[in-house]
Specification:
single chain, alpha/beta, FAD/NAD(P)-binding domain, D-Amino Acid Oxidase, Chain A, domain 2, 2 domains, seven-stranded mixed beta sheet, 13 helices, 22% strand, globular, binds flavin-adenine dinucleotide, cytoplasm
């Protein structure tokens, strides 16, 4: 069977799955993306991402979407303010207007829209939550969705993120908690509602790092500042800490209290949050995870190599999508060889990035001064 006759099913219409669909489309190969969300607007996509030259930017070039990306990239989103919990400003980096677009920030929703709009009508089937796959006698799989529908495919790509339901077809590995929990919220329309906080955060990232907690704020393209409160605690903390996350007012008060021993300028950022407080346990897959080839199934992105959120996951997911698409286009008569070549390179790439991410987590957990020393060491090299 050639790749042009094969039915390709991509489970998950996140950045990785959509990049794969787009790169295949550029090479004249059809694929169907089955996405659990009812529509592209069904769920907020989260904050900004910085896209690296060899990650997301590389993938968008292969997808023929560089121009569209430059139209939504925010150079000034690279700005950084790093502070100690005692209020000392340790580092301020303001991106000059003519700075190269090394790691431009891009709004996740705008990026996902760019990818969705680049696909033919009907390539994304919304509202299809994949539940399980059964093997077909002649090869390939039947996919079963939560709404009772089914679909058949010759190649199944699991791009369904951290809690992948496709992953068990390839490996027993499961994500484990890394001793960090994050509570996410946000301040919409901050320039109008809280101009003093808008000025404090600036145009990009504002990080306050302690050794047991962190508070970071990030300017988004939609006029919102997203606020992330990090707690270096075990997974059960989210249920044992007594903070009623679903009750905005009480959660705001309880979270503000948790930062009462820090310099007083930080808690107004929590008090100004009117977006829901969303608790997120942070987990990762084992570093160096790989699996023996299974005919007709593979994984990409978080489904394959979930890592702590230190700015790599979306870049890797998009790179995976592009590389798998390119491999299938390069071996049109032999999809199995293409998948093997993709997996071999992906395992190596992901392992290297996962090791680096684990080191960065340790540095971030050492506090703002630890991160400053790391930056200084790196600059001196
Ligand atoms: C707080 C936070 C900040 C982050 N910041 C950054 C950053 O700055 N830079 C960076 O590179 N990375 C960052 N990451 C990591 C990044 O978000 C992920 O690595 C990336 O989104 C992975 O892409 P993906 O396509 O593999 O999975 P996802 O983006 O998770 O997409 C998976 C898709 O599959 C769908 N899906 C799930 N289950 C099913 C199912 N059963 N059936 C059908 N569809 C399904 C989901 O609805 C979703 O659309 C951050 C993560 C977090 C939590």
């Amino acid at each position: 069977m050639t790749i042009h006759d094969a039915r390709i099913a991509i489970v998950g219409g996140g950045l990785g799955g959509l990049t794969l669909a787009r790169v295949l489309h550029v090479h004249g190969i059809d694929a169907v993306v089955y996405e659990r969300d009812a529509s592209r607007a069904a769920r907020g996509q989260g904050g900004m991402l910085d896209l690296h030259a060899d990650g997301g930017q590389h993938a968008l070039r292969e997808a023929g979407l560089e121009e569209g990306f430059l139209a939504i990239a925010r150079r000034e989103g690279q700005d950084l303010r790093l502070l100690d919990p005692d209020g000392t400003l340790l580092l301020q980096e303001d991106t000059p207007d003519d700075a190269p677009l090394d790691r431009p920030e891009v709004d996740r929703t705008a990026l996902r829209d760019l990818l969705v709009d680049s696909l033919p009508e009907g390539a994304v089937v919304w509202g299809r939550a994949f539940e399980r796959a059964t093997a077909l006698p002649g090869g390939g799989h039947r996919l079963h969705f939560a709404d009772g529908t089914t679909a058949e495919c010759d190649l199944l790509v699991g791009a369904d993120g951290a809690r992948s339901r496709v992953r068990p077809l390839l490996t027993d590995a499961r994500p484990f908690h890394i001793g960090q929990n994050v509570v996410e919220s946000g301040i919409p329309d901050i320039d109008r509602t809280h101009p003093e906080l808008a000025a404090m955060v600036g145009r990009g990232n504002y990080w306050v790092l302690g050794t047991d907690r962190s508070l970071s704020a990030q300017r988004n393209g939609d006029g919102r500042v997203r606020v992330y409160l990090g707690f270096y605690t075990s997974e059960d903390w989210l249920t044992t800490c007594g903070i009623p996350f679903e009750d905005g007012e009480r959660a705001r008060a309880a979270l503000t209290k948790r930062f009462a021993d820090w310099a007083p300028q930080f808690t107004p950022l929590i008090q100004a949050c009117t977006d829901p407080f969303v608790p997120r346990p942070i987990a990762m897959l084992p570093i160096g995870l790989s699996w023996a080839p299974v005919p007709g199934v593979t994984l990409l992105g978080d489904a394959a190599h979930l890592m702590p959120p230190v700015g790599e996951g979306a870049n890797l997911a998009m790179r995976d999508g592009a590389e798998l698409g390119l491999a299938l286009a390069a071996h049109p008569g032999d999809p199995a060889t293409a998948v093997r070549a993709y997996e071999t390179a992906m395992f190596e790439r992901a392992t290297a990035v996962a090791r680096r991410s684990a080191d960065i987590v340790k540095i971030l957990m050492s506090g703002a001064r630890g991160l400053l020393e790391f930056f200084q060491r790196r600059a001196g090299q």
